[in-house]
């Protein structure tokens, strides 16, 4: 479990691609919880960090996984050297401080987590902490945000309708080329021309998804490739390491992907 | 587990659609436990809260889940900093105070919970608390209410006939349009005309259930959309976020739903 | 786990339908354990309570479930506030006091429970309590009774032949009409004529079992309907809530059942 | 777990049907462990008790089950009120006292039990007790006996060849009629003529095994029926309760079995 | 778990059938771990005991099973009466004393055991003990030996290639007749002529493996039969108990096997 | 779990086969985590040890397995004799000291480990330690390296795309012949001619992979064979023990492999 209080001193760079900022802000003002759907590495986490900073709210991020339980979110008594202390989980911290709690890949969490989300997502907006006997009332500034990747759901892992229908929702996708070029430049320091070529390559690679690849190249991987190039690595070697090898283990597929790289970055 | 003692200071708004209030009250007077069946977000929880307030009874709500055990309902000794204290679970609290214990989505709970429900649901009306050696006799005002959604039952999760036949039962559905319009207005503050359009849209969307959608739009989601509109958001954007995106991840389905939105809220 | 010592001050009403009382009494006199088979709500629990009272024996009832272990039956050391105390389970209490231990739906219990039943069900009639080092010899008046519902057995849950062949067995079914009419009257206070109609309705509904219904209407549900009628509720509404809704979630089936109700209780 | 030290003051009645007593005694003298195979209720447990008494050895019987672990056999530290004490399990007790440890239905036990059996069943004949640091050397008089029912093995539950090949083995079956008649008389007190009829009935019923019945009537059930008759119960009623109902839940099968009863005990 | 320090005072009898002793000794000298493959009861355990004694090394044998964990091999803090003491597991003992640790049927162990084997089986030859903070460096005389039976592997239980490729390996089989005759004589005291007949019988029985039998008769079972004969038991009865019944539960197969016995030991 | 701090005093021998050293060093300088893919025993672990020594970084190696949890990586409070002490896991040690943490066969680990890897693999580069309340910021010199074998992935065990896309990746394979010959000589001390023959044999054996063998002969096994030869063992016997027996249990396959050995090392 990952309890993570990130005091944000500057607003992380985020280039909107639609009205997602307005919707987020309205949902926050109306005390509605929010569900963000989208593929790996398209910027969901960055977007939430950006909004938290813009709204001047502390952010508590939890990467959900198969063994994440309600206690991981709420907190527990820890037996440490010599004494027992109560330790708030990230959800409790977010409620206490009136911040944003962001549950990344929420469908991975165990089902008993839904029970702590339900009373926080209807008009009660409370968090009962059974173990200490407290019932926390979420301040107006508290917001619950969850996300998942619809293209990578397990058969046995979906959000129950009774949970899902408690959220306002929006879909994310990779940013449009002009936006993504800016992101790659901003994060890696490569030239506009190199960034443009990388995004062009990404567009070609993304067309293959569903045919040969489970997922396609994310903006994060583009930034990785750009960083390696900015450090002086030959473009083909950087693309192989950062864009091709992370996507497939099949030698045929790797060769095909690398030949697409060659069209953008000829030897 | 969610132990939740809600002192109710005012009767929550509830618009009956049949004789459900009379049946609930008679079951309560005859000491019969009640089972409520119905889809997500149709108002079961609100109805129970309404009846509890009308009957001036404390209400203890438990959202059941895969890991909910008998101890979660009855209580346990908690090891806190420096001492050990017994902590009543919500069922025990309801029995002690003669209130209503409401187990939402009871089929999700683990099977050992049935053993604590059985002696409370026949003419013994007792709750044995093994761990403290107590046997509580439920006062006349105590009532056990359980609910589940018949349209979303797991294959492996049903109420055993031997448990189910211990309850008086009733079916809930979405309220008729004239009632739902009132609910949407009451909860969000939109005009009667907007509420009417939203309910008309809901009626259109609900016709699709079973074809393209696992569940359809709930009254709760209508209220979400209405709240966003009341805050000044354009209707199409509000409907997309609150009615369409929460129902599906498929881009084809989302487009089809949004085109239905367009008929009620043209651009 | 449900440890339940019920001091019985009066003999609960029970109307025999055959020689079940004689067989039970002979098995008790011969120190033979007894297995009772029969559908939900046909009166097995009431019968055992009746016999325990007639034989002036304390009765310890345990509703078995998936997580019931040997320790739940025998007892355990409980860590309570400040000290550790041994707490007899219901089986141990029954052996110590020479009473009847009744394990309802025994096939639901975990398999390690069989190990405590075996030495009590052959000529040794002993209960070894490993944790305290005691070996209890069951007094002559002790009797072990188990039950299950043959119509609702899980594929993976049956009594092993090596356990089953340790019991004298009998089959229960719903009582014949003239007996059931008396039970309904006795328990609810309705007139003989209403009780007769209800039992007639039950007979019609029970014919459907195996076709549309997993189980059919029990005597307990008849009493529920009768109680609601005795409190002034219209018969059709009482039958819908107590006889029809508890049996099915399918709207077609509910309508079919309700039309059978109409023939006995026309509007 | 069932730790059970039975000081045997008299030799239990056992009627040999072959050279099983000689084989058992030779295996004991040669320090070879023994495996007994046979159906439920055919007398395996009685035979072991008989041999233990004849050889003047203490007997420790363990009914194995799905959750039986090595610690259940060897022993554990028990946390009791105020102190911690080591408590020998039945296998350890048998080794310490040089008695017989009898593991009934050994295939049911968990696999970590085999690790404690292996060093006891080869020429080392030792029992290491990890928790106390002891290594017990089995005295010459110690013997390990295990049994199972080949007709009722789970697919996933068999004795591994590496365990099985450590035992001398023999097969048991129901005793021949003349022996079984004697047993029934001896145990119940009925006349020779009634015992003969009961054994004749058993022979008829056993022919049905494999066709309609998973297992057939055991000697134990014959004794049950005889006891009920000896107490004055009509033979047909005694046979229904003790021989027919324990074998089947199917009404057709029960009727067929009861018609066979009628041929031996006409109304 | 079976921690077993066997101080070996004399070299156990072992008759080599090839160059297995040379290979074992070279592997030990080169600090290479060894994997021994072979059927049940063919002498793997005896061979390892023989080599340990010849090389004058202490031997620690562990029979692996489904629940064997890394802690069982390394050791743990034991809570005993009044105090907590660290207790070395058999692997740790072997490393500390520079002996041989022999994991019998290693494929049965849980997967977390591989993590303690890996750093001991490459050129690091270390055993980190997380719980005490120690890192033990294996002395030159330490050797790890594992074995399994390729003919009895579970589908889900194989040695991962990444573990398997860390061992020098050899295959064992039953000894050739002239060797096995010597073993049987040596262990049981029967005459050379009886030993010869028994080994001839074993050869006939082993030809049936794969047709009717999961495994065939081991040398250990031959010794059992010989011991019973040496004690005066008729050969056919001894062979039935020690060679036939341990191999099959099917009456047809048992009769076929016994008829093969008759050819070697006619009545 | 294997916490293993290896102070490296000399740079382990590693012969590069491409630009893997440059890529590793650039990834380390750019603070990018690295994923290494490749078959068993091809030198991944040695490569990481080599790079750690070259970069003068402490190395913490963890062999992942089915039961490896987040606590195994991060650390836990250990209850030792008389006191409770916090013990850093290998990942925490690597972060504190600014070293390399290498998770070998990361796909084997339990899913809750991903949650501790995620915040270390994006631009936050932090390790929250819930149990002690610490949040460690990874120093610039910290690097996370993971590996797995694409040819031996379980169906249920793959790296989630959301985890995988956080790493720069490269593929390893067995070294080319001239390099491998040098490795074999360096590690075992055999002559160049013997090393050449062994590598020629490996090339022949590796062509069989996918036909008869799950995996083929690794460089490590070649070194084993060479060590045995260097100690004087006949080449055919050394190859059988070190190259053939570890690869297969099938006697046909073993004979075929050994006949290939004969072509390189004729008798």
Automatic annotation (TrEMBL), chains A, B, C, D, E, F:
Start and end residues of each ATPase dynein-related AAA domain: 34-167
Sequence intervals crossing the membrane: none
UniProt keyword list: ATP-binding, Nucleotide-binding
Alphabetized InterPro entries for the sequence: ATPase_dyneun-rel_AAA, CbbQ/NirQ/NorQ/GpvN, CbbQ_C, P-loop_NTPase
A Pfam entry, by short name: CbbQ_C
KW Zinc-finger (keyword) present: no
Entry-linked Gene3D superfamilies: P-loop containing nucleotide triphosphate hydrolases (3.40.50.300)
Domain CbbQ/NirQ/NorQ C-terminal: from-to ranges: 180-263
GO molecular function: ATP binding; ATP hydrolysis activity
Stated family: Belongs to the CbbQ/NirQ/NorQ/GpvN family.
Protein name, as recorded: Nitric oxide reductase NorQ protein
Species assigned in the record: Brachymonas denitrificans DSM 15123
Native organism taxonomy: Bacteria, Pseudomonadati, Pseudomonadota, Betaproteobacteria, Burkholderiales
């Amino acid at each position: 479990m990952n309890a993570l209080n990130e005091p944000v001193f500057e607003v992380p760079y985020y280039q909107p691609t639609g009205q997602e900022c307005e919707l987020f802000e309205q949902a926050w003002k109306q005390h509605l919880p929010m569900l963000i759907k989208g593929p790996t590495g398209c910027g969901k986490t960055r977007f939430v960090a950006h909004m938290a900073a813009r709204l001047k709210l502390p952010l508590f991020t939890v990467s959900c996984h198969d063994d994440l339980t309600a206690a991981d979110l709420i907190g527990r008594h820890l037996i440490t050297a010599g004494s027992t202390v109560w330790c708030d989980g990230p959800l409790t911290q977010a409620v206490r401080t009136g911040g944003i709690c962001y549950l990344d890949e929420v469908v991975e969490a165990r089902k008993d987590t839904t029970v702590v989300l339900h009373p926080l997502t209807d008009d009660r907006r409370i968090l009962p902490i059974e173990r200490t006997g407290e019932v926390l009332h979420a301040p107006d500034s508290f917001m619950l945000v969850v996300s998942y990747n619809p293209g990578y759901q397990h058969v046995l892992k979906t959000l129950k309708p009774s949970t899902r229908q408690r959220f306002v929702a929006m879909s994310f996708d990779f940013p449009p080329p002009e936006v993504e070029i800016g992101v790659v430049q901003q994060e890696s320091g490569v030239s506009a021309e190199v960034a443009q070529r990388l995004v062009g390559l990404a567009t070609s690679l993304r067309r293959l998804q569903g045919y040969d690849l489970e997922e396609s190249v994310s903006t994060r991987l583009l930034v990785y490739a750009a960083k390696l190039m900015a450090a002086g690595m030959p473009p083909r070697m950087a693309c192989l390491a950062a864009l091709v090898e992370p996507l497939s283990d099949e030698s045929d597929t790797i060769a095909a992907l690398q030949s697409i790289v060659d069209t953008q970055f000829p030897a």
